[in-house]
């Protein structure tokens, strides 16, 4: 009952909006993959839509009320071989647009609208689940769709960490023997981590989800990219059919998957601009474009993967102070959430929710706090050592000197010698006491 009244009101709101101004398709992007092909319509306003499918031949018909058909669909690159072509058809009325996506075989569509975020405006997303997965592309991965971002937004001086709480909404993730949902644990730890990062000057957290909502695994790295994240941390809890396995682990992108992703990105040469930033212009001037692109993109990926490993090791070191480890080294895997070739990404399994003791621990707020703190400490350490260019921390690092403590030297002596406060040296080095040991390398702030 409540629902039907709500629907009527929602319809009324849409009708009002529809009268306000005519909607426009600004661009159409297709991202094929072996199992699901994604089509994104960039729209001027929030899209209204209805759709239906037709057989012989297979078609998806989308009706967009109060939308013009000025955008040319014939130039849309349809990518893989699921989509035959996109075209307009006669709409129900003159003010509407009817889009037909002709398919080479059956596919199950799911459509949803996305509200503006970052550099992106309103979007209508059409996911086409292929009836013959694996046929569309030789590539096995479904990469995030890549978008040319020609608005060069000024670089935020904060380091941006995208936190991805695993699962959510209709996807509970794993369920513990006492009935704990993984999606609740991951969100709680993600929020604690978010608070710690946001309390740290020079760092900022963004969330792929901040409530109990469903987001597809492919969409998650896309959000990180849209928000210009320097790092993506995905948070999960493991499960096994037996209760014994326990302990945390850290995962990074596997080399095999990386090669696939790289090949996939290279396929769309016109899309390199966004990924490569300033390097894209250089490439455009060269004759051997593909080779250069491959090299630079490869370097970018090598860099992301090396960074992921580096951070992964640090997270493992911190996690083992809090929990037992299931794997003592970062593991390589092919999770969809780790597929952004340009953003270092790690996936942290907090422990086994299928282990009764660990399920109990994970339900304890203080324990989740410790896990979040471990991830935070490792992340902070990682960025202190290798701050991304253009950030506050990179500036600080460039300004700082280091001093190796020699026998007989104390903090107050060093403070005097470098003409800085003892408290500034302590803050710059995260020291809790005045005790320093011989051989310790200290950062000496300039002011
Ligand atoms: Zn999970």
Provide structural commentary.
The protein has 447 residues and is an alpha/beta fold. The protein has three domains: 20-130, Immunoglobulin-like; 159-385, Aminopeptidase; 400-444, Membrane-bound Lytic Murein Transglycosylase D, Chain A (Roll), CATH 3.10.350. Helix content is 34%, strand content 23%. It has twelve helices and 16 strands. The protein has helices spanning 2-20, 182-198, 219-226, 255-267, 272-276, 279-284, 289-319, 356-362, 365-385, 392-399, 411-418, 422-428; strands at residues 25-31, 36-43, 50-54, 59-64, 83-89, 97-103, 107-114, 122-130, 159-165, 203-207, 231-238, 249-253, 331-333, 345-352, 401-404, 441-444. It has a six-stranded mixed β-sheet with strand order 10-9-11-14-12-13, sandwiched between helices. Strands 1-2-8-7 form a four-stranded antiparallel β-sheet, with no helix packed on it. Helix 4 packs antiparallel against helix 7. It is elongated and about 85 Å long. 36% of the residues are buried. The structure holds zinc ion (ZN). Zinc ion binds at residues 166-167, 173, 182, 236. Zinc ion binds next to loops.
pLDDT average, as an integer? 80
Largest sheet: 6 strands, mixed
Small molecules bound: zinc ion
Number of H- or I-type helical stretches = 12
Query: Quick one: how many beta strands?
Result: 16
- Please give the CATH class of the largest domain: Alpha Beta
CATH architecture of the largest domain: 3-Layer(aba) Sandwich
Work out the count of structural domains.
3
Tell me the CATH superfamily of the largest domain.
Zn-dependent exopeptidases
* SS strand fraction: 15-25%
- Briefly note the CATH topology name of the largest domain: Aminopeptidase
Low-confidence spans: pLDDT under 50, at least 5 residues?
A: 1-19, 137-156, 268-290
Please bin the fraction of helical residues: 25-40%
Rg from Cα: 25 Å
Secondary structural class: alpha/beta
Distance between the termini: 65 Å
Question: Strand sequence of the main sheet, in spatial order?
Answer: 10-9-11-14-12-13
Shape: elongated
